[in-house]
Design a protein that fits this description.
The protein is built from 18 helices and 18 strands. The radius of gyration is 22 Å and the shape is globular. The chain is 38% helix and 19% strand. The protein has a 7-stranded antiparallel beta sheet, with helices on both faces. The chain has a 5-stranded antiparallel beta sheet with strand order 5-6-10-8-9. It has a 4-stranded mixed beta sheet with strand order 1-2-4-3, covered by helices on one side. The chain is an alpha+beta fold.
Length: 469
Amino acid sequence: MALADILAERPARREGIAGAVAVLKQRFGERLVTGEDVRRAHAHSTTYIPNQMPDAVAFAESEEEVQEIVRICAEYRTPIVAFGTGSSLEGHVNAPQGGISLDLSRMDQVLAVHPEDLDCVVQPGVTREALNAHLRDTGLFFPIDPGANASLGGMAATRASGTNAVRYGTMRDNVIGLTAVMADGSLIRTARRARKTSAGYDLTRLLVGSEGTLGIITQLNLKLYGIPETILSGVCPFPDVRSACDAVIQTIQIGIPVARIELLDAQSMQAAIAYSQLDLQPQPSLFVEFHGSQGSVAEQAEMFEAIADEHGGGPLKSAARTEDRAQLWKARHQFYWAALALRPGAKGIATDVCVPVSRLADCIAETQADIDAAGLVAPIVGHVGDGNFHVTLLLDMESQAEIDAAEAFMARLAERAVAMDGTCTGEHGIGQGKRSYLRKELGGAVDVMKTIKSALDPLDILNPGKILP
C-alpha cells in the first residue's frame, strides 16, 4: 500500500482517547505509561512505514485486566493495539489512529503441560524459546520457528510459521484452541483440548491470523511433539537458484519427510558467510534438516544427496552435533543482520510471498530479473519446501526514489505470486503494508471479512487500520 495513503488515515478520536487514558491511568498507575520512548518502542516498524505511536501503553498482567482495559476502551471508543514482542513485519503494532498499546509481555506463564496428550496451555506473552526451555526435560518441543524469539500470542495472531513449517505446519495447524477477549470485553473459549471437533464454527481458525482485529488472545492450547531421536542438518550448494528449486520440488514430490529446507541465493550466502564466519561457498545453497531414527535420517539424507546430484548440486556438508547444527541455523536466523552488512547504512525491508511449489523456480527467477531491472539490492531467502520465499530490500531511506522503486517492486512481486495462484504473504501477514493486495488475491471474500469485522468489532477499536482497506 502506498505510504501516502497509510499516513493519510488518522480519524479524529482525540476526545475519547484522552478520556480512556485518564481512566486507565487512575486504575493502573505506573502500568499505564505515556512516556515517548516507551510509546515509540511499542510502534516500531521494520517496514518503510514511519513509527505511528499510541497515546499510552498499558501493561496487563491477567486475563481479567485485559477485559477491564478493553471495556474502558470500548466505552471511550479508543483503539487498542495488542503487543507481544513487536517482531512482526508489516506494521502490525503501529497505531495509525493513536489509542492504547496493550502490552501482554507480562502474561508469560506456562499454565499447564500435558505430556500424555502432547499439548500445553500458555499465556500469550510466553515466547517460543521460553516454552522450549520449559519443555526441555519432558522430551517434547514446540516446532514453530519464525526466526525471531516471538511471543506465542503474536505468532498465533499473525499465523506465523518458519523454517519447520514444511514438516510441522504453521500456527494454524498447531493451535488446538484459545481464549480471547472480544471487543466488548467478554471472554470466549473457542475449543476444548480434544484434538478434533465438529462443534460449531471454527472460531480458533478465525482468530488465528486475525492480527488482533477481531479479539485479543489471552490463552493458547498448543500441540507439542517428541524431540526426534536423531537430527541431521546440512548445507548443499547448487550452480544456480533454478537448480536448487528443482531439487526442492523433486524432494517434496517424492515424499522425503524433510523437516527444514531453506534456500539462500548467492547474495544471501555471501552475506551469511561473512557475518557468521561460515566455511561455505558463496553460491545458491539449500540448508536442510532431517528428523527421525538414526537409520531413517541417514536414508533421507542419502536420497536428498542423490536428488541434489541429479540437479548439479552437492556435496551435502552435514552437521550432527548439537552445537554445529545450532551454528548452522543461527546463520540462517541472523540473515537479516547479515544482509544489512551488504549495504552499510541501509535499512532492510523484508517482504514475502508464497506460491505452489511447482511454480517456485519460475517465481524466483522472474523476481530476480525484476530486482536487477529495478536496480535494487535485494537478497532472497526462503522456506522453499512450502513455496514461501522472502526478499530483503536494502534501501536508503533518505531516497524517495528508492522507496518508490521498492513500493513498485513489492506490488509487482505480490501480483506475480497471485498470478501463479499463490499469495501475497506466506507468513508475514497483511498489517498495513499489504492491504491493497488483499482484494486482488481474494476478491469478494474481503467483503465477507468486513462483515465479520463489523459484527465482532462494531466500534472498530481492535487494531484499526490493519488487514482491511
